[in-house]
Write a structure and sequence with these properties.
Helix content: over 70%
Order of helices and strands: HHHHHHHHHHHHHHH
Distance between the termini: 22 Å
Radius of gyration: 18 Å
Largest sheet: none
Amino acid sequence: MRVLSGVSSFAGRFFALFVIAAAIIAFLIPEPFMPINTYVPILLGIVMFGMGMTMKPVDFKRVAKQPIPVALGLVFQYTIMPLTALAIAYLLNLPPELAIGLVLLGSVPGGTSSNVMVYLAKGDLPLSISMTSLSTLVAPIATPAILYLLASQWMPVEFWAMFTMIVQVIIIPVALGLLLRRFLPVIVEKTVTVMPLVSVLAILAIITGAVSSNAETLATAGFISFVAVMLHNGAGLALGYTAAYLVRLTPSQRRAVSIEIGMQNTGLGVTLATAHLSPLSVIPSVIGTAWHNITGPIMATYWAKRPLKEGDAPPQQGADINVSK
């Protein structure tokens, strides 16, 4: 178990490099990875089950104790990212399938790897965990609703089909993870250290399946998609921090909100696009999986070297974090 824990920690630290390598291999040699695409919802469910195992009731109690920062962060999450995606889609005149894929990327909840980045950036980790948890819980309604309102002009958006899938691959696995932690804590404590490795492997499988099945479209639409995703992510990080500053959140809370908004649950984006949209619409979430895990560590390193004032030190003690996306 100790060896697996060490491997898990290594995999978490170099996750972005593994994602890039896996994507390149699947792009160059797509055939062996194509069957994986059938199992993408199951793989994402495994990732979210691992997230549920790391969550505690205290993560939700924080929302009651400090509702304003969490509520503001949630509003920013589901307004800044989808509206920015819509603006970029029009600005770059993206094809309809890429445009709806980018708006979908902006409409999914925050990814759990953001919690690790906030911790490294000396941000408010409890706020980050609360934002991730709450945005994940409201995703079955928020994600398809926002996508329908902003992007249905490009292609039909099946609200109830998306709602059902998000419940199946997000809410149920997270709930099962929480129940396992509640009733079988000994088992959870023994296995939770290797869950990041399982999550990393599941995400890598999702990426190889998505890239291999869309190799041709990625080759033709890759450049403009990269530009769109980079602009979207950069805007999310900058506007998230600015919005938190304007509502007078503390410096540590601004760091948490910025990273939380900038890093999305790209695995959910890939899953929903694969199941309910078109092959080309998967591309923004595929690229986002790698890009978000490059800019996240860059921002974490930047802020880690800039100490906060004594009164602004973040309350990080006792919080659990997960490196899975």
